[in-house]
Amino acid sequence: MSCAWLQDYLYAGAWQLRSLLPGTPADQLRTGSDPAAEPVVLIPGIWESWKFMLPVAKALPQAGHPVHVIPQLGFNHGTVPEMSEAVSRYLATEQLDGAVLVAHSKGGLIGKYLMAASLQGYRINRMIAIGTPFSGSRYARYAPIRSLRALSPNDQGLLKLSANLSVNSRIISIYSSFDPHIPGGCDLAGATNIKLPTLGHFRLLSDARLHAAVLKHLGHESPSAG
User: Fold this and answer.
1) What's the predicted TM-score (pTM) here?
2) Are 196 and 189 in contact (CB under 8 A)?
């Protein structure tokens, strides 16, 4: 599986570089074609900008959904409560109701915190979490920076969030059969857990099988899914 590690890091590096370049304007993603479609809010993972999720995001307006990004998250290096507050302010400012969160990695922890502990949590219908370490990653405890160590299974904030089961039934957790960064998997008690026959933590974002699963749980079937 060492090849999977390397390919995942090469993918992440390429997309980090692309995130720094001009590209798809955020407003372009908000032009969903179906007025009745639920608004989707993207929450990227740690050290990722919203552009890192473009492979997923571009499939959503085609299904009619307006897609919202939150530039105030930056590269998402703050704490889960801090980043949750940024999303909360956005939901309130935009008056979004019945929103669906589509989140990657740490973004799923932010989303769960928002759903369970924020005054704006009522605005969220459900969350589709992609490769989220709901129980942490044992590798995180060895990380040289605090923002990564906060993803350790022993982190008190993560343990408290894990113990809160109140919103789990409204979460769909989708993840790879082999994720080199989350060896313990991404199963969440009480949630809808979907293990895809894919490899990678970052590369998963560009996989057509993930896009089909996300669209399915938004109430659509992708063209490739038949």
Assistant:
1) 0.92
2) no
* Tens digit of each residue's pLDDT (9 = 90 or more) over 79-119: 999 999 999 999 999 999 999 999 999 999 999 999 999 99
Per DSSP, what are the bridge partners of residue 129?
A: 103, 173
| Contacting residues for 24 by C-beta, under 8 A, at least 6 apart | 51, 54, 57, 58
Alpha-carbon distance 24 to 41, whole Å?
A: 16
What does the block give as tokens for 40? Answer: 């989707």
Beta carbons within 8 Å of 50's beta carbon, 6+ residues apart = 26, 42, 44, 57, 69, 70, 71, 73
Q: Write phi, then psi, for 128 (nearest 5 degrees).
A: -105, 110
- Single-letter amino acid code for the residue at 164: N
- The number of beta carbons lying within 10 Å of the beta carbon of residue 186 is 25
Q: Answer yes or no: CATH 3.40.50.1820 is held by domain 1-22+37-217.
A: yes
